[in-house]
Design brief:
By secondary structure, the protein is an alpha/beta fold. The protein has one domain: TIM Barrel (Alpha-Beta Barrel), CATH 3.20.20.100. The chain is built from eleven helices and 16 strands. The strands form five sheets. It has an eight-stranded parallel sheet with strand order 3-6-7-10-11-12-13-16. The chain has a two-stranded antiparallel ribbon with strand order 1-2. Helix 6 links the parallel strand 12 and strand 13. The protein is globular and about 55 Å long.
């Protein structure tokens, strides 16, 4: 059964059940010498990809002011020129950056910076409103988030922002945010078939929040493109793999995630879907609140992802098989962890 639209939490805003993540189209930017982008990008192809997504019924586009140090918002604004009313724009603020040097410079969680950031994003996006404005600082203490709510509500009252949310992987903080911020409508968080988030989904259910699923394809792992022999380029954030990026290590796919992928591949593709389409179908079967935002920077990637909507949620028996395989992996991992380690035999002495 096809899945076409979903409601963005408390806001009542209708969006396509599949969004487009726009991190990759931001192009290169860095923190010092460490890349934060996905390498070189063709802006013209990015524009074509966004417009093709619109043609195929994708309406939610998720970016951030820091992607490409502002460049990502500019590209999205260019792509949506003349079609702004067809799209729901989600962007984020909280990290600071130097647009000219394309460098990340820190973070700022003050209300004053929030007002400057929204003004700058509106200019780069060439729009008069942001549909979903998300705090990008996922580990910010709740009292500091609460201090931003009044400003966010003022922006909503002014019509500059339609609804707001938080990009965080902390269910306790998301719940506290939802309780104090009546305009909060979404949580963006990590969620994929390889990394479930039951506690966060429970928070979304309790507080009527949309679950905007970040990393639904494991930063490319769930496309099937990468193997143990793959090496990511050094100008790609996955090629240097900072500590917060779990899918890759040392410029290669992390072996533990490839093992999980191998275990579920058959169930995800059993009905003729591609691996990526099966991974998206799992998310729709997992919760009626999920809106996955797989990244894309080419027309071909957009077309494959968008086709998943016509196949809809994963069939119940295939979903159950995925869960069975993952449970078996968890059981095996616990058994290995509990098994006593035998002492290594002594190393023979080396003759002089």
């Amino acid at each position: 059964m096809a899945v076409t639209t979903r409601t963005l939490g408390r806001s009542g805003i209708e969006v396509s059940a599949l969004g487009m993540g726009c991190w990759a189209i931001g192009g290169p930017w860095a923190e010092g010498v460490r890349p934060l982008g996905w390498g070189a990008v063709d802006d013209d192809e990015s524009v074509r990809a966004v417009r093709r997504a619109l043609d195929l019924g994708v309406t939610l586009f998720d970016t951030a002011d820091t992607y490409g140090a502002g460049h990502g918002e500019r590209v999205l604004g260019r792509a949506l020129a003349g079609r702004r009313d067809e799209a729901v724009i989600a962007t984020k603020w909280g990290y600071t950056f130097d647009e000219t040097a394309r460098q990340a410079t820190g973070e700022d969680a003050s209300p004053a910076y929030l007002r400057r950031a929204v003004t700058d994003s509106l200019r780069r996006l060439d729009t008069d409103r942001i549909d979903l404005y998300q705090l990008h600082l996922g580990d910010l203490p709740v009292p500091r988030v609460e201090a931003l709510v009044g400003t966010l509500e003022d922006l909503v009252a002014d019509g500059v922002v339609r609804a707001y949310g938080w990009s965080t992987d902390r269910p306790d903080r998301a719940a506290a945010f939802a309780q104090v911020a009546r305009g909060a409508t979404a949580v963006q968080h990590g969620l994929s078939v390889l990394r479930d988030a039951p506690a966060m989904l429970a928070v979304c259910d309790k507080h009527d929040l949309a679950s905007v699923a970040r990393g639904p394809l494991g930063m490319g792992l769930l496309t099937g493109k990468y193997s143990t022999d793959s090496t990511l380029p050094r100008d790609d954030v996955r090629g240097t793999a900072p500590n917060w990026l779990e899918w890759f290590r040392g410029g290669r796919p992390a072996p533990e995630w490839l093992r999980r992928l191998a275990a579920v591949r058959g169930a995800l593709t059993a009905d003729g879907r591609t691996l990526a389409q099966g991974a998206l179908g799992w998310l729709w079967a997992r919760s009626g609140r999920t809106v996955p935002i797989p990244g894309a920077r080419t027309v071909a990637q957009v077309e494959e992802n968008a086709a998943a909507r016509h196949r809809g949620p994963l069939a119940p028996d295939h979903f159950a098989e995925v869960e069975r395989q993952l449970a078996a992996l968890r059981t095996a991992a616990r058994r290995d962890a509990d098994r006593p380690h035998r002492p290594m035999p002594p190393v023979p002495a080396v003759r002089p």
